[in-house]
Every structure is written in C-alpha cells, then in structure tokens.
Amino acid sequence: MREIYLLLVASTCVIALNIHKAIKKDEERRADKAIGEQYGCLPPPRLQNQRPLGVDRLEQIFRANTESRLMELFLFHFRQTGYTLEQVFLATPAFGTVEPANLE
Q: For residue 22, which of 98, 46, 92, 14 has the smallest C-alpha distance?
C-alpha cells in the first residue's frame, strides 16, 4: 500500500512540474510576442519541409557537410528566403540568421 502511495505522490509531482514548465513556457512566448508586436517584428520565413519532422533538411545538411559544401547550402537558403529564417528539425523550430541584430 505504501508503494502505491509513493507512486501516486511521485506521479503527482511529475505532472505538477510539467504543468509548471508549460505555463512558464507559454508566459515566455506571450512576452516575446508582445515585444515583437511593440517593435513591429514579423515572423521569419520558414523553410518548408518535404518530409515529416524535417528529416529532409537534416539529410541535406549532413550530405552537404560530407561534401564540404555546407556554407554553400546555407547561403542558398538565405538567398532564397532572406537573411533570417526558421526551419523545423524533429518538430523543434530552429532559427538561422546572418544579421546579429535579429538575435537580440
């Protein structure tokens, strides 16, 4: 019986921690969005994936790196979309830029 109680307490703690993290992440996203709206920022263009989870982008990067043309690939994408872009790898957004002011 004690084991069930400990398992229940541990599960409740894990769930509470995950809810707390989700709330904090949402608050940060809202704050970032408010700052962006205040300064008139637009979202960066997104590179479109051909395959789920951006696997095609990862394959492109690994292939280009193996062929020593990684910077050429990045330059191609920047010329295609602009000098700041968003891409998604394994359901995680990633941003690329050559304009340091966009990192602030």
A: 14
Q: Bridge-partner residues for 84, per DSSP?
A: 97
Residue-by-residue pLDDT tens, the chain, 104 positions: 788 888 999 999 999 999 999 999 999 989 988 988 898 888 889 888 888 888 888 899 999 999 999 999 999 988 988 888 898 888 888 888 888 776 66
> Rounded to whole angstroms, how far apart are CA atoms 11 and 43?
38
Determine the Cα–Cα distance for residues 67 and 77; give it in Å rounded to an integer. Answer: 17
Query: Strand (E) positions, the chain?
Result: 84-89, 92-97
Query: Which tokens go with 37?
Result: 């709206």
Task: Give 44's contacts (C-beta < 8 A, 6+ positions apart).
Answer: 81, 82, 84, 85, 86, 95, 97, 102
* Whole-prediction pTM: 0.59
